[in-house]
Design brief:
Length: 209
């Protein structure tokens, strides 16, 4: 007996994402206020980071999100906060990866101006120059983590925050599937903003991007 219902059933099972390009419709973030710009400038001046250094890297000022939600809790790392839109997209993407037997583990999400400043100060105290620090870290106010839309991933296969992540199944899965959930690799190998390749760092795309 021929099952004439099967073609129709298969059509119903085809994911919508495979029928059209994903549309990233999260509202665009507001422009930074004058007060915020002044605050960022003061912090970077205190760190010895010049406007020229920032402009030469082509970095964009990133607004600090205040409307955040708890996205995940890790016993060893604490609470991860994200924008609501990033949290929803992240959970959907994480679930899809698990179906493919791929584990995406968060190692960083929202990061405040003060947190970013302290990270840089700690490295300066350890004897690094500001020029060296800025090769692997963005100045306060210019980190995508301020928006709550940027996520750093790790797996059990490699050390976190290393280029070895690019050789993992998790990274290959992200390359093939992250765009379906409106996530984009922020710092690819061919990037020219002075920041090294960061295969672990992905950001939610918003409307108009």
């Amino acid at each position: 007996m021929i099952n004439r219902c099967r073609p129709a059933l298969l059509l119903l099972l085809v994911p919508l994402a495979s029928l059209a390009e994903p549309r990233c419709e999260a509202d665009a973030l507001p422009d930074p206020s004058a007060d915020y710009r002044a605050r960022v400038e003061a912090i970077n001046t205190g760190l010895g980071i010049s406007d020229t250094s920032i402009k030469n890297r082509g970095l964009s000022l990133q607004i600090q999100q205040d409307d955040l939600v708890v996205a995940d809790i890790d016993p060893g790392q604490g609470v991860f906060f994200m924008s609501r839109e990033a949290r929803d997209a992240w959970r959907e993407m994480q679930a899809a990866a698990m179906v493919d037997d791929v584990t995406l583990t968060l190692v960083s999400a929202f990061r405040s101006l003060e947190h970013q400043e302290q990270l840089l100060r700690d490295r300066l105290k350890n004897g690094e120059t500001i020029e060296t620090v800025l090769k692997t870290s963005t100045p306060p106010g210019f980190s995508e983590h301020h928006t709550g839309d940027a996520l750093d991933f790790m797996t059990t296969d490699v050390e976190p925050f290393t280029e070895a992540f690019a050789e993992t199944r998790a990274f290959r899965w992200l390359e093939e599937n992250a765009a379906d959930y409106c996530f984009k690799l922020s710092y690819p190998e061919e990037d020219n903003n002075g920041i090294k390749f960061e295969p672990w760092h992905w950001r939610l795309l918003r409307a108009g991007e």
